[in-house]
Amino acid sequence: MSGCSSTCRLHLLGCFALHLDGASVELGGREERVLAVLALRGPQRRSVLAGTLWPDTTEERALSSLRAAVMRLRRTCEGLIDAGRSRISLGDEVTCDTVELGVRLDEVDRLGDVPWASTSEALAALGGRELLTGWYDDWVLEERDALQHRQIRGLESLAEVALMTGRAQLAGALAERAIGIEPLTDSAQELLIRAHLLGGNRAAAIQAYRSYARRLLRELGIRPSASMTELIGSTGFVARPVAARV
User: Fold this and answer.
1) In the prediction, which pLDDT does 40 show?
2) Exposed (0-12), middle (13-18) or buried (19+): which is 22, by Cβ within 10 Å?
3) 105, 177, 182 from 151: Cα distances, Å
4) How far apart are the first and last CA of the chain?
């Protein structure tokens, strides 16, 4: 394919995918990684980009690999990247799901409430898929961890607001999404218990506490926080030491 497509869409949440004018385009691993770094980290100096992608080889060989990848990307679609003598960036017309997710997370930080009409819209907007599933490069792990922390922070913030405004179902759904990203997060687990209690579901709150306590003991050898134990104790439930289940 040559020339510039009118629509360049990059997907990094879940498995990598590139669509040009709605059609899926297959790239080599080098080319995929060049696009992914540029989408996640913005414009890069050639030497920095090459060092990120090929850290275990010489600078000369890394820069040679980068030049080859840039040439292939330009043959795929001239508008995919903007490659200058020293810096490379994504083309101006390329859209990416992670960039859009970042905008939505910024919106949550700014507004401090759910700007969506329904629970399903809120959950879809904040993303549930892992960044670049199946990729284990060091820089991917760093970016994945950073994005997950941002998602958890945004989800917990919205869940807290939902609790304060009496929206138990929304708060519970947001807390469960945060737990799905990182199960051993005290703050998200506590939000889930509070959501169950706000909704009048004492049994679900106790079950959530018990399940979390078992998992904490099994995986980390510790018990839930004092604040969470105090919270569940307010229901009349006496939190006793639990045995880890294999």
Assistant:
1) 97
2) exposed
3) 7, 9, 10
4) 54
Give yes or no for a contact between 218 and 245, defined as CB atoms under 8 angstroms apart: yes
pLDDT beneath 50: ranges in the chain? 1-2, 246
How many CB atoms lie under 10 A from the CB of residue 39?
20
Would you put residue 76 in left (φ > 0), alpha (ψ -120 to 50) or beta? alpha
Q: Is domain 8-92 classified as CATH 1.10.10.10?
A: yes
Q: Are 37 and 64 in contact (CB under 8 A)?
A: no
pTM: 0.86
Closest CA to 40 of 127, 146, 126, 177: 146
Per the document, the length of the chain is 246
Q: Hey, where are the domains in the chain?
A: 8-92, 98-199
Rounded CA separation 208/49 (Å): 45
